[in-house]
Specification:
This protein is an alpha+beta fold. The chain contains three helices and five strands, in the order αββαβαββ. It has helices at about 1-10, 50-55, 90-95, and strands at about 15-25, 30-35, 75-80, 105, 120-125. Strands 2-1-5-3-4 form a five-stranded mixed sheet. β1 (about 15-25) and β2 form a beta hairpin. Bound molecules: FE2/S2 (inorganic) cluster. FE2/S2 (inorganic) cluster (FES) binds next to loops.
Length: about 130
């Protein structure tokens, strides 16, 4: 009986995955990174949208190494904004200097997927001019 209960509990473990799709504005091509739901949220601090991209050979500009100060990693979130941590004051101040709709802009290096939903990220041709 006890063994049976253990089996049921094991089967209930979630193995959900979610994806981050990076789309290049330049040519419309896409790269998809799959996140393992079981590894979240423990890995979140390193797994921001910039580091995830760079770890998978996806190119997003950076001059500050992800410190949130160079503004080059500006991206537009096309889907899944609610699956990211909310921006903090420093990031909001940076984004207000960018052209574009601030409600869909993020600094990739300050944005951490929480694994709750799929995210689609547009990598702009010019990080200072997002449509
Ligand atoms: S990498 Fe410099 S602000 Fe994000």
């Amino acid at each position: 009986m006890q063994h049976h209960f253990h089996l049921l509990k094991t089967m209930a473990v979630r193995t959900d995955t979610c994806t981050v799709t990076y789309r290049y504005q330049k040519d419309g091509s896409e790269s998809v990174v799959t996140l393992d739901g079981e590894s979240l949220p423990e890995k979140l601090p390193e797994h921001n949208l910039l580091m995830l991209a760079l770890d998978h050979g996806i190119s997003i500009a950076t001059a500050c190494g992800g410190q949130g100060s160079c503004h080059l990693c500006n991206v537009q979130i096309l889907e899944g904004m609610a699956g990211l941590n909310p921006p903090e004051d420093d990031e909001l101040a940076m984004l207000q200097g960018a052209q574009g709709n601030i409600r869909v802009l993020r600094l990739a290096c300050q944005s951490h997927p929480d694994g709750s939903q799929d995210i689609v990220v547009l990598i702009p041709e010019d990080p200072f001019k997002i449509l």
